Amino acid sequence: MRIGVVVFPGSNCDRDCVHVLRDVVGQDVVEVWHGETALEDLDAVVLPGGFAYGDYLRAGAVAATSPIMPAVRAFASSGGPVLGICNGFQVLLEAGLLPGAMVRNRGLLFQCRTVHIRVESTRTPFTRGLREGQVLRLPIAHGEGNYYAPAALLETIEEAQQVVFRYCDAGGRVTPEANPNGSLRNIAGVCSPQGNVLGLMPHPERAAEEILGSVDGRWIFESLVACLEARVPVPVG
Amino acid sequence: MATVRIIITLKPGILDAAGQAVRQGLHALGYDQAGDVRVGRYVEITVADGIAPEDVHQMCARFLANPLIEQWRFEGLDPNVGASPARSLRRPRPEATRQGRKTDRPGLH
User: Fold this and answer.
1) Terminal-to-terminal C-alpha distance of chain A
2) Beta partners for B46?
3) Scanning A92, A132, B14, B59, which has the fewest C-beta atoms within 10 Å of its C-beta?
4) What element of type H or E holds B45?
C-alpha cells in the first residue's frame, strides 16, 4: 500500500510517521509537501504532529488553508482513510473535516507524558483491528488538546458513535483523574460521520516499537494496513 | 485605506485557562480588585475604503476566529462598529464556499 504523510512547515512528527509506516509496518510511503495540490495514487493519508505554521492564530488554523487541503478534503470525501495525529488532528478540526474544536489545556500545562486511552469504536479503518474497550498506552505532548464541542454537537457525535477514543486509567475506567487536559467527556479522538477520517491527540507513532516502551500505537497502523489490503469498504452512515 | 481593529475572545462559558492564570498573577501582585480575566487576540488589518462590515465578519467567521469557541468585535469602519452576529455559528470555509462539503452533516461544525 502507498501512504502519504503531509508535511507542513512546522511539522515535527512527519519523520516518525514515515519511519513507522515504512520500517515497522512495511508500506510504501511518500512525503507530501503542503504546497502540493494533488494526492496521487495514495491509499491513505496521515497528517502528522508538530506546530504547523507555528500554530499562529490557532493550532492548525493556517495549515487548514494550505494548498494541499482541498485535495485532502476530496480524498476524504471519496472515502479515503485520513489520520490526523495531535497537530494533524487540530488541522482536521480547523478544516472542518472533523467536528469540534480544541482549546488550551485545563491548567495551562503542556502535557508531555504517557496516558491510557480506551477504544470506543471499531468503525474506523484505524481501529477495526482493535476491540471495543481495549486500552492503549500512548504518549501525549500538547498544550491545546482540550476537546470542546457545544452540547448539541456533543450529543450528535456521541449518538453517531464518532467518539473513537477516551482518556482512561490503566484499567479502562474513564475518570476525571485520567483526563490530562480537560477534554469534554475525556474525548481523545473523534472520527467523521463516515468513519474514514480519524483524529487523535496521543501519538501512536511514538509507541510502535518495544524500544520505545509501548507497541500499542502499532496496532492502529496495522489495522489500517489490514483494512486496505482486505479492501474492506468504508462503512457509510 | 482604513484600518480595522478586531478583538477576538473565547465565548463566555468556554474555559479560558490563560485568563485564569493572568488573574492569579494579578492577585499575586496585590491587585485583588481584578475580577474575571479574558485573554484574546488582537488583529489589525488595513483594508480598502468602503469595505462592508459583512466582509470583515466573514474574515472572522471563516478564518480569524473559530465560531465554535470564539466571539469577535471590531472597530475602525467608521461609522460602523461590528460585533459577532449571532447567526454566524456555522463556519463556511474557503473550500466549502467554492466546492461544497458533501461529507458534512448539518450542524456538525
Assistant:
1) 26
2) B3
3) A132
4) strand B41-47
Q: Looking at domain B2-99, which of 3.30.300.30, 3.40.50.300, 3.40.50.10490, 3.30.1280.10 is its CATH number?
A: 3.30.1280.10
CATH class for the region spanning A2-230: alpha beta
Q: Which residues contact A118 (CB under 8 A, 6 or more apart)?
A: A133, A134, A135, A136, A165, A166, A167, A168, A172, A174
Task: Quote the cell numbers at residue A77.
Answer: 470525501
CB contact under 8 A, A193 and B105: yes
Q: What are the DSSP E strand ranges found in chain A?
A: 2-7, 28-33, 44-47, 82-85, 101-103, 111-119, 135-142, 146-148, 163-168, 187-191, 197-200
Find chain A residues with C-beta within 8 A of B93's C-beta: 64, 95-96
Spell out which residues of chain B touch residue A156, defining contact as CB-CB under 8 Å. 105, 107-108
Choice between B108 and A20, residue whose per-residue pLDDT is larger? A20
Q: Is B41 on the interface with A (CB under 8 A)?
A: yes
pLDDT the model gives residue B85: 63
Is A94 one of the annotated active-site residues of the chain? no
The pLDDT-based confidence of A107 (bands split at 50, 70, 90) is confident
Is 90 exceeded by the pLDDT of residue B65?
A: yes
Contact A193 B103 (CB under 8 A): yes
Q: Do B103 and A106 touch (CB under 8 A)?
A: no
Query: Which pLDDT score, from 0 to 100, does residue B89 have?
Result: 42
Give B68-93 pLDDT, tens digit per residue.
Answer: 999 999 999 865 456 666 544 445 45
CA dihedral sign, ordered A89, A92, A97, A101: positive
pTM, entire model: 0.88
Predicted confidence at residue B77, as pLDDT, reads 84
User: What ipTM score was computed for the predicted complex, to two decimals?
Assistant: 0.83
Q: Does B13 touch chain A (CB under 8 A)?
A: no
- Domain definitions of chain A by residue range: 2-230
A79 at B interface, C-beta within 8 A: no
Q: Is the pLDDT of residue A194 over 80?
A: yes
Task: Indicate if the pLDDT at residue B94 is higher than 90.
Answer: no
